Amino acid sequence: MDALLDRRGPAAWITLNRPRELNAIGPAMLDRLHAILDEVEADPSVRCLVVTGCGRAFCAGADLAFVHAMPMAERDAATMAFLRRASATMSRIEACPKPVVAAVNGVTVAGGLELVLCCDVVLAAETARIGDGHAKYGLLPGAGASARLPRRIGVSRANWLFFTGALLPAAELVAAGLVNKVVPDAELPAAAELVAAEIAARSPLGLRRMKELSRASLDGTLEEALERELAVNAGYAASFDRNEGLAAFAERREPAFQGR
């Protein structure tokens, strides 16, 4: 399979599984990712997702080999159909109601960067190299980088990656805000498991609402974001998890959240 799914406690791990192709994204991988998301979103016991790559790459972008096998007259339409599907997949990962952690383990370029941009938390191995890369071949981002990267790291830093096509060490992207933490290569899986476990211990409903607020804060005015925060708080006030959290605080114990 082009992507594997396995459970590690309350976390679901998605491993891109085309190591010979540096986990490049093709149509079959997109279909598999949608199927995995269907499964994990419907499973209340999954409280966090971790996305990583098999082998020496996280993801080296799109694999358009299938396009070159087509007659010339069909290639443009096929490419656009693929980009629309890829963009929809990235947006679905971004909108996943459960926190998504990227464990970036190697080369991460083009579509790989676009996948990272859709994750909520980014851990990276010391040897990871991250960039856009489209400019090297006269191409454009097609699955969200032009919209998400400037929002994440600012226009000037984004333009550096867009225009040069450079792959930067993960450590250089911590201060920029793209990567949360860099760890030694051998420690990446354990570090991701630790973060996933910490996230999974929180209220699933609370994290879902917090994620919605965080994502929505990028749109509209500050005043609109503040009003949205109050409105979400008002709806959340009657939830079991909110009241369980308050009771646990008062009773000096760990809360037992249920996601409702």
UniProtKB/TrEMBL annotation:
<dbReference type="InterPro" id="IPR029045">
    <property type="entry name" value="ClpP/crotonase-like_dom_sf"/>
</dbReference>
<dbReference type="GO" id="GO:0003824">
    <property type="term" value="F:catalytic activity"/>
</dbReference>
<protein>
    <submittedName>
        <fullName>Enoyl-CoA hydratase</fullName>
    </submittedName>
</protein>
<comment type="similarity">
    <text>Belongs to the enoyl-CoA hydratase/isomerase family.</text>
</comment>
<dbReference type="Pfam" id="PF00378">
    <property type="entry name" value="ECH_1"/>
</dbReference>
<dbReference type="GO" id="GO:0006635">
    <property type="term" value="P:fatty acid beta-oxidation"/>
</dbReference>
<dbReference type="InterPro" id="IPR018376">
    <property type="entry name" value="Enoyl-CoA_hyd/isom_CS"/>
</dbReference>
<dbReference type="InterPro" id="IPR001753">
    <property type="entry name" value="Enoyl-CoA_hydra/iso"/>
</dbReference>
